[in-house]
Amino acid sequence: MEDRAQILRKMVANIYHPHSASIQGVKEETRDIKTLTLVFKDQEIQDHFTFQPGQFVLVSVFNCGEAPISISSSPTFSEGLQLSIKKMGLLTGEIHRYTEGEEVGLRGPYGNGFPLDELCGHNLLFVGGGIGLAPLRSLIQYVFSKRSEFGRVTVLYGARTPRDIVFKDDLAAWGREKDVKVLTTVYRDNPEWKGEVGPLSPLLEKAAISPSNTKAIICGHPAIISYVIFDLLKMGFAEDEIISTLERNMKCGVGKCGHCSIGSKFTCMHGPVFTYRQIKEFPSVL
Amino acid sequence: MPDELILDKEHLTGFLRKIAKERELVAPVKNSHGDTLFEVVSSVDDISLDLESKPVMPAKNFFLPRTETLFHYQRKGKQYLFKEVLPEVPRVLFGLRSCDLWAILFLDVVFQENFKDRYYLNRRSDTVLINIGCREPMRNCFCKSAKSGPFLTQGYDLQLTDLGDRFFVEIGRPRGRELVEKWDYFFRPATNRDRDEQYEIVLEAESRFERIVDFDTAISRFINNEVDDALWEELGNRCQGCGGCAYVCPTCYCFNIVDRPDSETEGQRLRIHDACTLAGFTRLAGGHNPRHERSRRVRRRFYHKLPFAQEKYHRPSCVGCGRCVEICFGRVDMIHFIRMVCERPEKSKEASLRLGEILVRAGVISTEELKIALEKQDRTGKLLGTQLIEDGLATGKEIAFALGRQLGIPETVGTGGVVGR
Hints:
The complex is a heterodimer. Helix content of chain A is 28%, strand content 29%. Chain A is an alpha/beta fold. In chain A, strands 10-9-8-7-11-12-15 form a 7-stranded mixed β-sheet, with helices on both faces. The longest helix of chain A is centred in the C-terminal third of the chain and has 14 residues. By secondary structure, chain B is of the alpha+beta class. Chain B has 3 domains: 204 residues, no CATH class; 108 residues, no CATH class; 63 residues. In chain B, helix 8 crosses helix 10. The radius of gyration of chain B is 27 Å and the shape is globular. Chain B starts with a strand and ends in a 14-residue tail after the last helix. Chains A and B meet through strand 4, strand 6, helix 8, strand 13 and helix 10 of A and strand 4, strand 5, strand 11, strand 12 and helix 10 of B.
């Protein structure tokens, strides 16, 4: 324990100090999303770095600055930290050019993460849209590593087109688990696509979700979040059984820089995971 | 050494000269353009010290510089290395105004709470703060309303009062005492007459404020949700989004972290001042901006400075220095804002709007179209949103926006900027 305290001190002595991590693997998920597996260069940090599903790290890329990225692997995954990154701008564009062995900087983990204790013993409904499945993947894989502690699991996933579906292998593997239902839909199909087409909402009915003893965890584009919450409320989900994440422009990660403020809270510290009840309480346009 | 001393004015330069030899001395200096600014004084004899006017900029820049290097980074082959740059400057800030000193104490809390900010705290760790009480309020000053002046009762290392030919010196924190004890030959004990004179000056200064700014009423109106949208719209129209108010504000501390490449192999990670009223402040990768409209950014700023600061720190984060009043030509400053809020007739609390009403207000559909859709919906039994999309009167995005608003999900507000522009 003392050891860990010392390492933690080393890591937080300067809260803005990134730690170098090298890329152990790159997996192309879609045409614009890649999953990187990262390992800290400093063995002590690597050995003691822990996080909760739903937390994020600030990723430094040479000459590009920093960006907040959700961790997409489970804390129980031993081969490193995985980040699934969509190519959006300067930094993410650069990181997409990186290959095995190249280094990035990491600091964190930041944010509150999903409330694991509260989820324990419940049926879980995961609704993800696009890259929004990344933080959910961390939690889903964690749940499967502690399968007996959770009830039935349903994963509803929506992507723009069949080519935009992330974690294809994982979605298939999850579907094979006991007491698990996975449904995937696309907004626009192509000739090869045999699955669902259209918005996510109808899948809720299809999956025969019942609100009893169930927690819903939603992550995706704000529009998807709105639709799904609307439907879940109609189905009888209580406001604090609906859990979502807010995306903000986090710069410091430690509740100082002001960029991710929402109401009197900071998304980087008090979030990014909030219940719908909490989200509703925030002054609407702050 | 007693707690109250006299420093004769003829000894001031000598005292400052001694200080400047041992520490970095920062003092208000009138420059060649006639502006008074806090500056690092290398030679006391070559400057024109100005203890009469309000420095244009607050003193926060000495602890949270406009631009500072956090790290030097380097790429060596595939390696990516960081070298931290931690500043530590023994410093004396002389001639601070009470409001500016109070603001520094406020920033101390922000940078110490939760995660400690080494950069700020290192700069701040060996600093002596010496303020001079204001004998009369300067233009636009309202520190009395903000409870941060014109004289302080705590927080300073040394506090000076101008008694004409001499300064009345009060010793506050231990660093102030150390400084005085080190060069005690410049000081003599204050007499009862000095004390009486100083007390009179304080009373007189307090009575001279013309600007009375009612923070309490304004904050209670926030808390009771009595500030209406029309006020924000008006302020949004007047705000030019220049960020000037935040740059001159002694308690505004929002910052950005960016990289500045120096070459193909190295560069610097910088921290720079930022402002919540600037358009890009909350913009995300991909362009989505939760505070897309200017009125929302202005609203954020005042919420942060008043009710949120009150909730967290039990006081507004405004020290009444009046600099935002001087810099803002749109009158989106604290004095005008609080006056607007207080003079507003009480607003009846807005009932929660229905989906159709939100769409009408946002200009997506007309009342006529809503009426038709509602009648149709009665027959078909479909949801209003579905009905409107089917009839081609609204897009899915627009319905999502309205739903988000109805559900109070802030993220959807201004999504893609499709509505309300």
